[in-house]
Write a structure and sequence with these properties.
With 215 residues, the protein is mainly α. The chain has helices at 4-17, 31-40, 46-59, 63-68, 71-78, 84-102, 110-114, 121-130, 141-150, 158-166, 171-187, 206-212. The protein contains twelve helices and no strands. The structure holds iron/sulfur cluster. Iron/sulfur cluster is lined by residues 146, 149-150, 188-189, 194-196, 199, 201-202, 205, 207-208, 213.
C-alpha cells in the first residue's frame, strides 16, 4: 500500500485542481435535509435528488413533519428517485426515530447515525464530515474506483476502502477530499474512459504508471 506522503501529494493536487470542494447535494446548511437527500441518493443521480427535494421539503420541512406524513404521500414525492417504496419507508422510520429519540436533531455519533433507517456508513460519514466537521471517508463509487486506480486501496468493499483511506488522509481533509474525488470521477477519471492524458495525477497514479493509461 502507498504511503501517507504520497497521499498528501494527491490531496494537494486535487485541492489545487478544485479549490472549492462542494457536495453535489444541494442541502444548504440544514443537517436534516442533507440526511434525507443522502438517503435518496442511493442508486440515483445527485441532480435528480436535488430536483425532487424542493417539493419534498416544501411539504415536509423537518423530521417531525416527515414522521407524521403518510408513506404513500412520501412515495409520490420521491417516485422518480427509484427504489421509492423502500426509500419512503426508511425516510419515515428515520424521521420517527429522529423525532422521538433525538428531539428532531441529527446526531453526530456513528452508532446513533447507524441506528437510523436507511443510514449506512457512507451516509453517516457524509453527515459526520460535512455537518459536524468530524471527518469521514465517504466510500462511494468514485472514491472506491479512483482510490484503487491510484493504488491507495485494493478492494471494492466500501468498509475496507474506508479503513484504508482513513489511515492515509488526515481527518480534517477527508470530507473535502471525497467531494473532490466525486468531481474528478465525473470530469476527468471517468469510469468508462479515464482521461489520463490530461490528468493531474498521472505521474502518481499506479494505473497510469503501469502503462495502462488511456492515450
Ligand atoms: S491517470 Fe488515469 S486512471 Fe489514473 S487517476 Fe488519472 S485519469 Fe484516473
Amino acid at each position: 500500500m502507498r504511503s501517507r506522503e504520497e497521499m498528501a501529494e494527491v490531496v494537494r493536487r486535487l485541492e489545487a485542481y478544485y479549490p472549492d470542494a462542494q457536495c453535489a447535494l444541494e442541502a444548504g446548511e440544514d443537517p436534516f435535509r442533507l440526511l434525507v437527500m443522502a438517503i435518496l441518493s442511493a442508486q440515483c443521480t445527485d441532480a435528480r435528488v436535488n430536483l425532487v427535494s424542493g417539493p419534498l421539503f416544501a411539504r415536509f420541512p423537518d423530521a417531525p413533519s416527515l414522521a407524521e406524513g403518510s408513506i404513500e404521500e412520501i412515495e409520490e414525492l420521491i417516485r422518480t428517485c427509484g427504489l421509492y417504496h423502500s426509500k419512503a419507508k426508511n425516510l419515515h422510520l428515520m424521521s420517527v426515530r429522529l423525532t422521538e429519540v433525538y428531539g428532531g436533531k441529527v446526531p453526530s455519533e456513528m452508532d446513533d447515525l447507524l441506528s437510523l433507517a436507511g443510514v449506512g456508513r457512507k451516509v453517516a460519514n457524509l453527515i459526520r464530515g460535512d455537518v459536524f466537521g468530524l471527518g469521514g471517508i465517504v466510500a462511494d463509487t468514485h472514491c472506491i474506483r479512483i482510490s484503487n486506480l491510484l493504488g491507495f486501496a485494493d478492494s471494492t468493499d466500501p468498509h475496507k476502502v474506508e479503513r484504508q483511506l482513513d489511515g492515509l488522509v488526515p481527518k480534517d481533509k477527508q470530507s473535502d477530499f471525497c467531494h473532490r474525488l466525486v468531481q474528478y470521477g465525473r470530469n476527468v477519471c471517468v469510469a468508462r474512459r479515464p482521461q489520463c492524458g490530461v490528468c493531474v495525477l498521472r505521474d502518481v497514479c499506479a494505473h497510469a504508471c503501469a502503462g495502462k493509461e488511456t492515450p
